[in-house]
Amino acid sequence: MRNQLGLLCCFLLLGTLVAAQTDDCMAAPELIVVDDCLRSPGNTKGLIENAKMNACGGNADDDGWFKFTAISERTQISVSTDQLTDMVIGAYQNCSIELGCVNGKGVGGQEILRIDTKIGDVYFIQVYEAGDGGAEFLICVSALDPIICTKPSAIHFDIRSPNCMDAASGSIQIDSIKDGTPPYTYQINDRDFQSSPIFSNLTAGQYLITLQDSLACQFDTVLTVLDTISFELDIGADLSVDQGTIIDLVVISNVPDAQIATISWLEIPITDCDSPCLTPNFIAANSATIQATLTTLDGCQIKDELVLTVQSEAAIYIPNVFSPNGDGINDFFTIYSNAGINKITKVAIFNRSGGLVFESNNISPNDQNNIWDGRQNNQLVSADVYVYVVVYETQDVQSVTVSGMVTLLL
């Protein structure tokens, strides 16, 4: 087996080892692969014609050319020098299609370029000193064993959607890679490869993620960064109620409870509601526009509001006849009211001569058991017309006195 360092090298097809003496690719001398790696000397000094710049840059005025016939699917080209020169290697098909270049070692040392090749095809090598004047060097072409790419058995990605505060705050992170041939570098779309497995500042959309292992094997996948969730908040429809009505609101939202930081309320008094307050209740005192603001843990806010109309005019109904005869129908003198009345402060019943027949204080409206049952000193009074005086308190703490007559029937 051929190893990665190369077991086969070459010499110039000139009978002896001589320098490259042409900067014309089409006239390049051929390097032949043999069993023993014998580095061939080269010299590009004085070669100043037909300069061809490759992707690695530098001054290519002194470029020299070689060619070889591939005997393997992977080929390594190495150029070394002990001079204070900065060597560049380029590889081509047909002298025009660049397959790759290298210029990573700087001054001195050895530059190595590895390329994929097809057995039997002819390839061309360009060598030059990145500065001026040319250089002497040793060149060797080696056959490499084919690379066997081992695809990772599992890759875990953490994909985050942009938050509502910034449309370009999404991210993709490669959390873990199982098996394969590490270390890896990472690429998103057509950007440069990077060592960090995190891609930030992404908007919603699809992205081509490429992993490259230590053997230069690449594995692609397409990932989707979803758009920000459109949050919803609903605290109910507009309400029209009597003053004093107990209002129970319920927050309906597609934001998970665990993602809610706070809910703030405007225009309602909240005294007993655990934060975040999702089910507030209160007594309707005045008309208002009630607003709820939900803030998520990410700082996003959504709002909803409803218009509360409170009928603040107190309404009271006092019957003009009742029959306390024990038949279960209309047996009590009962005072009815809407929610605008807080309480009945006083009820007094008088007979025709002005005598007090019944009196009670601080009575709940609409409660039959606490109003007059037609008795005085536990004795049923006679059928007649009686005068009542009722004092009540409204929700806005105003005291109102009303009077009238009621007929008691037996």
Write structural notes for this entry.
It is a single chain. This protein has a six-stranded mixed β-sheet, with no helix packed on it. The termini are far apart. The model is unreliable at 1-19 (pLDDT under 50). It contains no helices and 33 strands. By secondary structure, it is an all-beta fold. 0% of the residues lie in helices and 48% in strands. The radius of gyration is 48 Å and the shape is rod-shaped. The protein has four domains: 9-144, Jelly Rolls; 154-225, Immunoglobulin-like, CATH 2.60.40.10; 233-311, Immunoglobulin-like (Sandwich), CATH 2.60.40.10; 316-408, Immunoglobulin-like, CATH 2.60.40.
Task: Explain the layout of strands and helices.
Blueprint: E1 9-12, E2 30-34, E3 40-43, E4 64-69, E5 74-81, E6 87-93, E7 97-102, E8 109-116, E9 122-129, E10 136-144, E11 154-160, E12 170-178, E13 185-188, E14 198-202, E15 205-212, E16 218-225, E17 233-234, E18 239-242, E19 246-248, E20 252-253, E21 260-266, E22 281-283, E23 288-296, E24 301-311, E25 316-317, E26 321-322, E27 336-337, E28 341-350, E29 356-363, E30 375-376, E31 379-380, E32 384-394, E33 399-408
Parallel strand pairs: 2-4, 18-24, 26-33
Antiparallel strand pairs: 1-2, 3-10, 4-9, 5-8, 5-10, 6-7, 6-9, 11-12, 12-14, 13-15, 15-16, 17-20, 19-22, 21-23, 23-24, 25-27, 28-29, 28-32, 30-31, 32-33
Key terms for this structure?
410 residues; Jelly Rolls; Immunoglobulin-like; 4 domains; five-stranded mixed β-sheet; 0% helix
Count of individual beta strands: 33
Query: Major β-sheet, in short?
Result: 6 strands, mixed
**Rg calculated over all Cα atoms:** 48 Å
Amount of helix:
under 10%
Overall geometric form: rod-shaped
Number of self-contained structural domains: 4
Task: Show unreliable segments.
Answer: 1-19
Distance between the termini: 123 Å
Q: Would you identify the CATH architecture of the largest domain?
A: Sandwich
Q: What would CATH call the class of the largest domain?
A: Mainly Beta
Write the CATH fold name of the largest domain: Jelly Rolls
Instruction: Report mean pLDDT, rounded to a whole number.
Output: 86
